[in-house]
Every structure is written in C-alpha cells, then in structure tokens.
User: Fold this.
Amino acid sequence: MEIEEKLALLNYKTDPEYEHITINPKICETCPDHFCTFACPAKCYTLIEGRINFKYEDCVECGTCDVACAHGSVMWTNPKDSHGIKYKFG
Amino acid sequence: MSEFDVIVVGAGPAGSSAAIKMASQGLNVLLVERGDPVGSKNVSGGILWGNDLAAIIPDWEKSAPLERYVERKVTSFLTGDSEIAIDFKTKKFQEKKTGYSVLRTRLDSFLARKASQSGAMVITGVTVDALAMKDGRVVGIINEGETITADCVILAEGANPRVAMAAGLVGKPNDRTVGIGVKHVYKLGENVINERFNLRGNAGFAGEYVLSFLEGGVYAGGFLYTNKDTVSMGVVINMETLRKNGNTHSFDIMEKFAQHPFISGLVEGGQLQEYSAHFVYEGGYEDMPRAYGNGYMLVGDTAGFSFSNGMILQGMNYAISSGILAGEAAIEAKKDNDFSAESLSRYQKKLDNSPAVLDKKNFQGINNVVWSPMVHRAIPALLESSLYSMLYETGNPKKHLSQIMMKSLKSSGMNSKDLMLQGYRLMRRM
Amino acid sequence: MIILALEIIVLVKQVPDSQEVVIDPVTMNLNRSLTRNVTNRADENALEAALQIKDKVDAHVTVISMGPPQAETTMIECLARGADRAILASDRFFGGADTYPTGLTLAATIKTFGKFDIIFAGEETSDSSTGHVGPGVAEFLDIDQITYASKVDFKDGYITAERELEDGTEVVRVPTPVLITVLLNSNVPRRQTLRRKIDAMKQGFESWDHEKVGLQPEWVGVRGSPTIVRKMRPIKERERAAKKVDLAGIPDLVKELYQKGAIKLESE
Assistant:
C-alpha cells in the first residue's frame, strides 16, 4: 500500500490560518542531505526539481522532522485550537 | 492568589493520573489538553504493563477500556527468510494479569473523564503556548497572550514537550534520544484474531521483533499487539542509522515489516484502519532532565520515563506512576503552602525509590546494546544459519551443534572473542 | 432614550464527526455510541457570522440547541468562541425527533427566551443534511428568512446578505427580525482561547425541559415526528486512490483520467 493511500485514511481538521510548521527555504537550498524527505513518516517533505516542498496539511505531529533537520530550517510548533490530526485509534 | 492550585499540561496517562490524584484530594486543578477529543493526538506502541492505575482507579481492570490482556509474549528476530522466536505463553497471566493492549484514544478519554469526575476542570482543544515565569519561578501558563495562574504547573506533554523545551526545562531531543515510531491498525474481527493467534476470550498476543532483514545498515524494531477486534502493528526506527543510511524512507520500513513473509500472514485480509506516527523517547538515565523546579514538575515521557530493554517496551506504566507521585508531592506541597524547588524536591525523592527511576538506572547503557550490530545483525545471522544447518537434512552424517555454530560464526564475520564479550555485556545489562 | 442591545440567536447542533459515522448493521440506525461528537461545522460558521456583527454593534449573542446532555461540550465551545449565553433544550421527550418537532422545539425555546432580532443557523447539519430546521423555525416564528447566505452585514435595522445560487450571487436586504442560514465554510471561525474556555466552564449553560419551553410531550420528539424511517442501508465506501507523479508525468495522468471517464474535454 502506498503512503498516499495510508494518509488518505486519516482525519484532519486543517487550520487555514496557521501553519504550525514552517521551513526556511534559504537553508534548505544549501542542504546537503535532505534527510527530512526520508525521515518524515507522513511524506510532508518532498524534493521537487531540487527544492524542498513542504505541506503542513498532511502532518501527523510526530516531531520527527524537528530532530531530523540538522540545519535549523524547521520551526516546529503544535497546531492551535483543536486543529490538525485526529486519530480514531491511537 | 493563583487561579488554580495546579495546572496540568497534557491529558495522557501521566497528566490525567496526576489530575485524578490531586483533584480527588480536593486540590483546585486545571487539566489542559490540545487534542479534541482527548486522545486524538496520541499514539502508543506499547502495552500497558503493571497495576499502577489501581492506586487511583481501584476497579480499573473492570472499568477502563482495555483491549486484551497479554497471555502470549513473543520476542523474535526477523531475517529476510526466517523468524527465530521465543514464544512464551502462560496461563499464569490469566490469573494475575501483567499487561493489557490499549488504544490510546479510548484509554486517554477514559482517564480524562475520571479526572473530570474527580473534580478537575478539564479543557480540551486548547494549545498551551508557553509557561508564565516570574522571578525565576513558574507561575502559570500562557495561551494566546493571556496568562492563567497556578501555584504549580505539571508538564505532561509526552515525548515531544514543546512547552518544557521552550522553557529550557528539558533538552532538545536528538538522534540518540528518539526513534521514529510508525504504526498500522488493522481491523480483523475478534474471531479471526483468536484463531490466528491461538487465543481465547480476551487473552492477547504481544510480539516484539528485531528487524534484522533491513538493508543499508538501518536498525529498527517492530511490534505487534492484538486488540479486541483490531491489531496494532508498528516499527520503531533508530534515527542514527537511518540518517547514516541517508536513502531509506521511514514509511517504507513500516511497509517492509508489514510485508515480511512471517508478519503479513498475521494480518492477511485485515483492513487498514489507521496509519499513525510519533517519535518515541529512547534516552537513557543520563539524558533524564531534573524532574522538578520552582513551581513545576515533569512527568511521563516529558521527564524521560520510557524504557526498553529489548524484551519489554514500557512507558505508560511509568507515566501513570510518575503522575501519581507528582500528584502526591503537590498535595503535600499544598499543605505546606510551598511550591518552591526545595519543597517539590520531595517528588524526586519519591521517584528515586520507584521502578520508573530504578529501571532506568539499573539498565543504564542498555540502548547501546539494544541498538548494536550484535543484536541487529550478528545474533540473528548466527541463529539462522545454525538452526538451518541443524535442521536441514543433507543425507550426510550430522555435526555437533558447537561445530555448526563455529562455522556460522565464521561466516557472520564476527570473532568469537567479540561475541563472548558482547554477549556477556548484553546479559549483564538485561 | 435607551437603545437596547441587538439580540442575536444562533442555532447549533452537536453531530457525530462526519468521518466516523457508522450504521449499526443490526438495527440499521446511526450508531452514535461509536462515534465522537463535534459541533456541526456550518453552525460554527453561523456563530462566527453572529460574532462578526457583535464586533461592530452592541449585541448579545445567545446559542440555542436541542440535544442530549452530552451536547455540553458544544455549548461550552460556543461560549468559549464568544457567545454570551447558551441554552440547551434537553428532555427525554425531545429524543427521536425529526425536523418538524425539532423546529417546533427550537421555536418554542426562542419564544420562551423572549425578544430577538436576528437568528442564525447553519445551512444544514452534516448528520442528516436536510436543511429543514432553520427555515422551519422561521415559519413557526412567522418571520422572514434568508437561506444559503455566504456574506452577511447588519446596518440600521437591516440585514444585507449575499446568497449563493446555482447561476450566480443574489444580494438581498431584509429588515429584522429575520432568520439567516449560513453556508458551510463561508467564514473562518475565531479561536477558542483558554481564558474564554475557563470562563465558559465556570459560567456553564442552561438546560431547559419541555415544561420550561411550554410544549406538551406528545407534540415533540419521536411522538411529534411525522416521518417514519422505513429502512437505512450503509453505502459502499467510495474507492480512494492516490498516485504520485512528477511534473513530467502530468500529461500521462490527464490521459489516464480521461480514459477512465474521470474528466472530460471542455467541448464534450
């Protein structure tokens, strides 16, 4: 099963006004490893034509990218006001 | 005068246990949880071991939403072609339960409801932004620029404690202190589970696996637990080796485990209900932060209370026991009307005599062994080739086990001295 | 002269989280015990529309709902978003109601409440999607109604609203009192804050029974419902597929979708 199909099973309440994780594209431009694209279990980080593309909407709030990025590009916060992932089982 | 005696941040097992303890003793408690409903942000890769809940919910085994009790425990090495396992079943666990599989959305909702019934104010769907500080002590919490005051704040944020981190109360996690946990929940139905895992009634299966078949030097462990009518299956990926590899996706490792020839059959025909992930705290005794200070205490994963020695993964039981101990400390501090670091050091004293700290202390350095080439590569390779040689009927005269093992050892590339030494260390540390 | 504050009422409902609705295979009823409840999303937009008026003029916002005691969380949430008062019409006689007695009960609750100028409701609820209740309440109260409003403004005793129609947008201007149903996602609901949520918990909500709202038991709930549900059946889950393509793969993907009939040429 593809990761995209697995993510499609999930229930999110997306916050249209607040991106709880942001990246600094300037830092990502010079990144030698792009480890975020391998570490993130929700495939929020993808490399498109050499640039990091990040989408917060698929984030499952696991915390991995904040540790994975060794270059200080990831600004990680919790979503606000009950937004974000809503697990049914957990 | 503060608005609350104690504010608890986070309604997982640690936070709710602390809130139940304190509120039932008459303290004015606010329990704040960002998930709505409670538990919707939480993922567990574990079994709820032990009987710690009994101290605050005497009938917990009847009233809590438990899935199945552990009757059968498997510890297993998975190579590409083989599984080598210790499969321990005992009826003794039927009379005296040792652990239960749980689903966190259900368990955590239950515990938060208990906290509310005990008199705590439980507020969900609100994210705490920061601690409010004054003259070097914690005086409350901040949300959307507004301060809510309390004599004491208990931080029960879990493995990714953003508030505690921002305040510098815990260190930033790193490759050595966290693993990436990824999980599937499959719907299989009660009867299929009973048949497939050879279980009856609410007896359950708990398996922990070393995934030695992974290529490219990545280390990961797996787990598989039976719930009532679902199965939880997951992996914990070692961050250091994943980074060193630099070319493997975490979600592919989960899929590889699910597709292993001896794992996939266990959930065959099951419908995937949920995919989830969370990082897992793996730090050792030396990584634990100071669990108290002026006006605050840390509990559960935030304080570093999770533990694995290769045979058993624990976290929720320490979360509950540390929550209860912090609750006790707050009740005593309230009597003295003193929530200074000196007064709250009584929490540390309680912890020092508890399994939560003692297990961590006694198994110092275990992670170096659990995530070692010996456990993840040499032992499974040795066992596989020895067992295969012993069992495969060649038609030639049989060899002694020692001869087979020496030959397998040679082909594994380890020398016997190394193995003896590492084996000795492993036994000592376990 | 005393100018009284504008009285705004918002009708809300607690519904099962739409992603989790399960039909009991035995009884063929919605199994509400397995699902978690949330505030109907369109009602959050209705509340926000009311609060935006309150931001501009002196107004008093009251949230009214009919439902079981579990609807408490919705009542608290609405107070925490900025409502001044929350009333839950809750009575075992109200149970099992279709849209007719629901409208009747809400209208009776509003009459008991007293003076009102504007009533807001969501366009429909996600659990039954009838869109009957808002208009029904307007009829029981014998006031004007504006349905499917995407934008609402209040000035000098008049509501100006934009209505989304199939072939365009209609702008209407109606004097109060008026009932307005608000489109889902027509605005962004403001955040609940911890401070407001604590205050809401302390303030609490009012629970009104059939006597308080002046209704006979036989007029409401299942006994007052003309609708009979003969049968319910679960629908097959929509097949979902996901596919990863890079930029170069887009033409092929478009071709594939076209062949599967998922998309059409403009000329067709």
